[in-house]
Specification:
The complex is a heterodimer of chains A (374) and B (205).
Chain A: H1 8-13, H2 15-22, H3 26-38, H4 43-60, H5 67-78, E1 86-88, H6 98-122, H7 126-129, E2 143-147, E3 154-157, E4 163-166, E5 171-175, E6 183-194, E7 203-207, E8 209-214, E9 218-223, E10 229-236, E11 238-244, H8 250-256, E12 264-267, E13 270-275, E14 286-287, E15 302-307, H9 308-319, E16 322-324, H10 327-330, E17 334-338, H11 344-355, E18 357-362, E19 365-370
Parallel strand pairs in A: 1-3, 6-7, 16-19
Antiparallel strand pairs in A: 2-5, 3-4, 4-6, 5-6, 6-9, 7-8, 8-11, 9-10, 10-13, 11-12, 13-14, 15-17, 18-19
Chain B: H1 4-7, H2 13-21, H3 25-46, H4 50-66, H5 78-94, H6 128-141, H7 144-155, H8 160-167, H9 171-204
Helix pairs in contact in B: 2-3, 3-4, 3-5, 4-5, 5-8, 6-9, 7-9, 8-9
Classes of the chains: A alpha+beta (374), B mainly alpha (205).
Amino acid sequence: MKYDPYSLTELIRNDDFIAWVRYPDANNEARWQQFLSENPEKRKTVEAARNYVNILSEDTGKNLPSIEQTNKMWRAVESHLHEENVAEVKTDKIVLGWRWLRIAASVALILGISSLSYWYLAKPGGAANEVGLSEVKGQENATIEKVNDTTKPMTILLGDGSSVVLQPGGRLSFSAKENQKKREVTLTGKAFFEIVKNSERPFLVYTDGIATKVLGTSFLIDAPENSEEVKVEVKTGKVSVFALNRNSTMEEREEAGKPELKGVILTGDQKISVSRQSGKPVRSLEVAAEPEEMDITRQLFMFDETPAAEVFSALESAYNVKIVYNKDVFGSCPLNATLIGQPFIDKLTVICAALDAQFEIEENQVIIKGNGCK
Amino acid sequence: MTTFETLRREKTDQELWNGIRQGDEKSFTLVFDRYHGTLYNYGCKLSASSAVVEDAVQDVFIDIWRLRNNLTENVTSVKFYLYRALRRRINIGQDKFPVTEEITFIDDHEVPASGTNSETIFIEGESKNILEKRLQGLIARLPERQVEALTLRYFDDFSIEEIAQIMGVNDKSVRNFIYKALTSLRQNREFILPTVLIFCLLWFL
């Protein structure tokens, strides 16, 4: 059979045809319409080829990440934007700079041994599990320790995607090897935790005598080294706080490793102070006051009670568009949103939904109309 | 139909790239914002594990920021750069051999760059919905490399030359992947119809 450059297969593979189907403009539209008018018998073939191209592009493009995935990836990437204050950890390799290694070696040996031995005792069947614990030098079963000896908060990323913002003076340590059944860290000092939810692997924070257990949530722990009290403040989710020290029985330790939450349980916006010695609350459960700015610095497209005027301004500069809106009506409306990774239109949609407004696009301008938040 | 995205004067890739080289966090954020989604989508064609893909995407961007001072000055397409980086990373992670070996097995007779029979017979009256249902299952069963090539061509809009460089093969191989894929997608139907007819005939005899 004669070669037909406009057969179904040829069309589907044709650069210009694909461009016309995917990105029609005045130019290619005119050309292909002319082709069709000169070859009316090709109409069905063209129609079928269009369908193929569209379906191929839709089907191969259906693996876009979910919002949660986007946020997770961005958190990981974003933490590297502030390199001096960031330590990132992967469980399959231990990242130790040489300078850090020297400091860590001395710090770890002197100060770390106490927390390491606590770690050793706190795990059920501790003796069998912790081979070579005393060496903090890059062996697979070793403990990683992060010390914040700077003046700014330090973000630490854990293997499961959770993040810990360690305040100056704080110390966080955890095993290099990932435990299948639970996630564990030891803390001295103050840190804010954002833990990825995993109902099968509880996350435990040991603070010398007190343990805090969550499945996935965000909370703050303040456990200064020589203080009698440990404070826990929950932002979202559910947290259980209980005593776990040298005197705890094997049974108690096993309970700790299970997903069930026992002991004192706190939920969103609650806080408590617990005595290290008794493991019991020092005061009754309180409602946490509006937490102080935890210095999750304002990022492009991440808005936390941000006035709409700032949000619009960020969009304007990022997308090079003018956004027209009534400043009196909208300007100071607070917005909470994480919009990273969403297309411009989606960002506008989310923002307008929060503001009870609508947007219209005219040429290079976006016009916002609505009643605002007052 | 032109979209809003194409209408307004967005910062060009080159502008953002320059920004990154100078350490501008906003430029970097915008590049992530613009490309990480389709990059992830592509990664899913290279690995079945979403964790692997997420890690690889993260690493690509992290590396760009870490090495921002040493990035090449001119980049025609940031997207192209990202995709190549991702593929290298996922291949390293999975210990895959670069697939240049496939080129040698291409048989000229099998795959005409030009010259196919017209097949008007089977396309008449097939609505998009029916075609869609049929194709979705078939596309999923195509060999990995063909799905990869189809994605880069029909979703990511790369040219044959660009796809060749991303996949580490030559232009001809890319055309082969695509041609074979399209042939499979058509052939399966051609095969089914006569088979069904024969089956029905036998059943009623």
